[in-house]
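ok trying again, last paste got cut off:
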Amino acid sequence: MEKIKAAVVGSTGYAGEELVRILSNHKNVELKFLTSRSYKGQNFQDVYSNFNKVLDINLIEDDIETLSNEVDVIFLALPHGIASSKVTKETLGKTKIIDLGADFRLKSKTVYEKWYNVEHLGENLLDEAVYGLPEIYREEIKKTNLIANPGCYTTCSILSLYPLFKNNLIETNSVIIDAKSGVTGAGRSVSLGVHFSETNENIKAYKIASHRHTPEIEQELTNAIKKDVVIQFTPHLIPMNRGILTTSYLKLKDGFTFNDVKEAYFEQYKNEKFVRLLKDGIYPETKWVKGSNYIDIGLFFDRRTGNVIVQGAIDNLIKGASGQAVQNMNLTFGFDEIEGIKTAGIFPV
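nice, full thing came through this time. structure:
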């Protein structure tokens, strides 16, 4: 099979670097261009020494319009607020775009601007964009040229809860998601809050009741159950490099049992290659998914309170970003869905 040509815009951030690592080993991809504003003109292996003798590509400044004439797919690993001003219908007529940022995830321009405090300049493309969760939107992903790759907290939260909402098994007025993330979720830019001395031997909540992934989770759970969902979402920063663990608390509706819950998850995910439903009594751990594209899901029932407790664990840079982007690429080009991302996690690390 002839290789497709790919470009990674924003290749020197953590998600961008992981994309480069995965794509450089993908049998169906020729990695043609890497861009970086901060390191323009330097060689990628001089920025990330783990690529020494692995990849020899000089970094260029991003020009999506020019790149669209040269490659089959462009990955955008950029902060929010940039992609909506750069992606156009003309661009999408020439190449596929997989956006790892937030600009095309939310279907409402108003909701986006409220939560991100920036003007959205690509409203005419919102209906064209497909939300890139393959386990839910696989067939739609295959047909589009614009994929909105989900956020990391969002991926873990939605996939771990989706069967409950799709099957209308729980009350929707008391959904609580407690989430914890490693520091790479904050990106590679220097910030006081992620300095070693600030995070080591420490755990802290942040953006309580105001985290930008909240409306994204609500949008997709609302779509699943076909009525408005409001969640209580609280993220925490923990002193490790990568990984996300979510613990969600939900009230089971009268008339349903925990066996109904387990059956719903089995039916939803029995054929999914990257969803692992854990055995009874086994708790998800970030160390078992680190470096992989898997999500581990654990189901529990508290008979005393009547609560269903669902845990999910992912690597925020793989299934929560770059691995999922490649999974989406595989689907839209007709490759084997697991190509390039089928490896087990790395342990110990």
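cool. The radius of gyration is 20 Å. The mean pLDDT is 95.
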